[in-house]
């Protein structure tokens, strides 16, 4: 299945207590995709264990983060720099709503842009795509 480039529309970091007294840092990105086979548009949530940090102390919103591919079995493969992550495509128990805030004089309106029904979950450690060749002699 062909891949796509992933631009980060927004990023949210939160500490999630799975075990009392111990926190995991979870990164979540919202992406907008178009399926190459059906040309249908879909918004997905990408959930990562850990955090994605920009080399240049700036926000990742609107920046290219990596490339997303799918295996022949439909499993997502996310390549970020020299790291590759293997994940699962899951249907969310409760969908997320993507809204756009619009100022209308003295009032504020929130318009629904999309509803996210599925997420890509990457819960394992990334694998390095470059292997050390050892010391030069």
Automatic annotation (TrEMBL):
<dbReference type="GO" id="GO:0005634">
    <property type="term" value="C:nucleus"/>
</dbReference>
<protein>
    <submittedName>
        <fullName>Ctf8</fullName>
    </submittedName>
</protein>
<keyword id="KW-0539">Nucleus</keyword>
